[in-house]
Amino acid sequence: MLDDLDRALIHALHVAGRAPFSRIAAALGVSSQTIARRYRRLREEASLRVVGLADPHRAGQTQWLVRMTAAAGSAEDLAHALARRPDTSWVKLTSGGTDIVAIIHAPTDAAGNSLLLRDIPRTNTVTAVSAHCLLHMYLGGPTNWRRSANTLDEEQQRLLRSNEATGTAYVPVPRQLTDADADLLVALQKDGRASHAELAQATGWSPVTVARRLADLRAGGALFFDVEVDTGLFGANTRALLWMSVSPAHLDHVATALAGHDELAFVAATTGPTNLVAQALCSDPADLHRYLTRRLGSLDAIHTLETSPVLRNVKAASPVLTDLARIRRAVPASRVRL
User: What is the DSSP letter of 151?
Assistant: First the structure.
């Protein structure tokens, strides 16, 4: 489990993912060396990673939540094949281990949606597939799971957000993502804390240009930073996807209410027979049962509910994997291709 300093550091990275260790240390009241050591340990032991991600709407992309059922014995291979693709995130093995759920990032123009329209249907190990377009996200993305970001007080968060430590008088001008940002985005998907020099090498720009472009994209909301971390270290050992059907007249009200629940890390309106999906993170099955019956059960506008246990997270928020070996099985990766 995490101690208080671990939790404070993770919360600090949620608040300011690229803040230098010196600024984080000042806000937390410890030395920079201590923060650097803790950060390295959490990367190794808790799968901690800060990643820079594009706002899908500003990047001209549509997100699809895809549910697949695979033939017996092939689900894990299929999940790993999906995880290796650069257009997927949040790949999960669910239910009895034969179901896979993944988010697919596709151009808003459906003509470019090759994975949905061609690759998955051609995979002979897939026995059933459904795709749900994410229409609106109420919780997730730039909005953090509360139980992973509830340690720092307002003054500590203000110190972290301060730009005084940057030593620059540059005033950001809100910008949108363009094709020229592709290399920058890939580098940030690998490591959101990469230095300006490292990002300059990846893009061919100068460090000053990199710094200004980052500031402009963040000012315009086109770029945000997320924190990947093993939620089990926060005591969330039972995870489940909740597929709900809510009448359209009550959808916004219910989704807004759910976004305020500490047990949920993700809430989104979707297309399909179930028009609201959420991810619950609970301590154990009894805790999940209490949540479903007492909190969720009090919302009469929810007509149907399907609970799908998450057995394993194969891929997290970033479309880019930095260590493929950690998600591969002993079987050859070529058994399933997508």
Answer: S
The Cβ of residue 38 has, within 10 Å, a number of other Cβ atoms equal to 22
Long-range CB pairs of 25-28 (<8 Å, 24+ gap) are 26/159, 27/152, 27/156, 27/157, 27/159, 27/160, 28/152, 28/156
Decide: 166 and 208 in contact? Cβ < 8 Å.
no
What predicted TM-score, i.e. pTM, was given to this entire model? 0.91
Residue 332 pLDDT:
45
Q: In terms of Cα–Cα distance, which of 271, 315, 240 is closest to 88?
A: 315
> pLDDT for 115-164, tens place per residue?
776 788 778 889 999 999 999 999 999 998 999 999 999 999 999 998 64
Q: Distance between CA 301 and CA 311 in Å, rounded? A: 29
Tell me what percent of the residues of the chain surpass a pLDDT of 90: 81
What's the rounded mean pLDDT across residues 194-200?
Answer: 98
CA of residue 115 relative to chain centroid, distance: 20
Q: Which helix (DSSP H) or strand (DSSP E) does residue 160 occupy?
A: helix 154-161
- E strand residue ranges, 247-317: 264-270, 276-282, 302-313
What is the residue-wise DSSP string for 28-78?
HTS-HHHHHHHHHHHHHHS--EEEEEE-TTTTTEEEEEEEEEE-TT-HHHH
Residue 86 DSSP one-character state = T
Spatial separation of the C-alpha atoms in residues 180 and 244, rounded to whole Å: 40
pLDDT tens readout for residues 294-303: 999 999 999 9
